[in-house]
# Entry
Amino acid sequence: MKRPRGRPRGFDPEEALKAASERFRTFGYAATSLDDLAAATGLARPSLYAAFGDKKALYLAALARTHRRLEATFDALEAAALPRAALLKTIFASTIDLYLTGEIGPAGCIAVSTASAEAVADPEIRAALHGFLAMEDSRMARILAASGVARPEAAARILMSVTHSLAVRTRAGTPRADLEAIAADCIALLA
# Structure
């Protein structure tokens, strides 16, 4: 069936970006074609270009979307002001739940699982990944400081490193019980 030209009626840029983000999160930047993105978003290739620019611009927009969503998650964690143990359990439970989702199986994190592969050769993607990681560390340090952790910057780096490991492990097929055991070990160290 031939796809109509132009954007479909009711085009929602955020929904299209969400669909593209999921496709990139599942298959990575290099392995995701424009045809894959058109299929995921329901937009014709010219409409993708008109709405987002080229494939790289769309990927950077997907990374920026993830960055914004994580900042909103950190805002909610700060507002909740949970006791340390409950805070850590909440962080790991929601992280594992998210990482175990994906279009065809556990996809982990778009930044950790896909941008890290592209960052070596692409300075814009490297900068986006660096900014993402720096934001994670600083926001988590602030949250942990509020919960009374003695060395919040160090604890934040450890916690975020463990969550990054969980992203990789989910893509490798590690069972939920094993992921939860890793999370429990980290909680025991930090609580």
